[in-house]
Structure formats: C-alpha cells, structure tokens
Amino acid sequence: MLQIYRETGIRQTFFYPAWCMERYPQLVDAILKDGHEIAHHGYIHESMSRLPSRDVELEWIVRGVEVIEKMTGKKPRGFRAPNYHFSRHTAAIWRNWASNMMLH
C-alpha cells in the first residue's frame, strides 16, 4: 500500500494499534518517511464499550498516546475507536484530555 500511495502522491492517516507500532517499528518509520500521519486506534485494539470502567479506558488511551508520541515525536491528532465501539465515556475522555483530537 505504501508504494501505491507513494506513486500516486496520496497522503494518508493510518489508524494503527499502538502495540503494532512497538512490534513493527520499521513500518512506522516507512509510514512517517512517506509523509503520512499515524492516529490512535487503541493500544491492543480494545473495544472501548467492553472495558469495565472509565478509568481503565483512560489507561488504555493514555498508553496508546504515549507509544505514538514516543515513536512519532507527536501527539496523535485523530482517534478511531477499534471496531467503532465507543463507550459512554469515550468522547468525554478525549474532550477533557485532548482538546485538539478528532474522533472518527
């Protein structure tokens, strides 16, 4: 896919679980080298609606943000809930924690 984007000049936002970033740092480097953005897509692709509490959800979100920040040098600007499962807390967590975040 990266080659196709490169050939066509398309820039993409990749919603990429943070554990994958840790496991495959060379892919992160390739994505960034080509000028793409990496956004938050959970740490382990956890379903926000199935987490036991707001605090646990916040812990997973923060863990993912920390990995993205460490590997890209930037806080993520976008979030797409894994499986599109938001909890009743998800939007408020992002609104309170990261005012410039776009939820997808």
Automatic annotation (TrEMBL):
GO terms for biological process: xylan catabolic process. GO terms for molecular function: hydrolase activity, acting on carbon-nitrogen (but not peptide) bonds. Keywords: Carbohydrate metabolism, Polysaccharide degradation, Xylan degradation. It comes from the Bacteria. Residues 1-104 form the NodB homology domain. The keyword Cytoplasm does not apply. Pfam families: Polysacc_deac_1. Belongs to the polysaccharide deacetylase family. Is involved in generating a small heat-stable compound (Nod), an acylated oligomer of N-acetylglucosamine, that stimulates mitosis in various plant protoplasts. This is Chitooligosaccharide deacetylase. It comes from Sinorhizobium saheli.
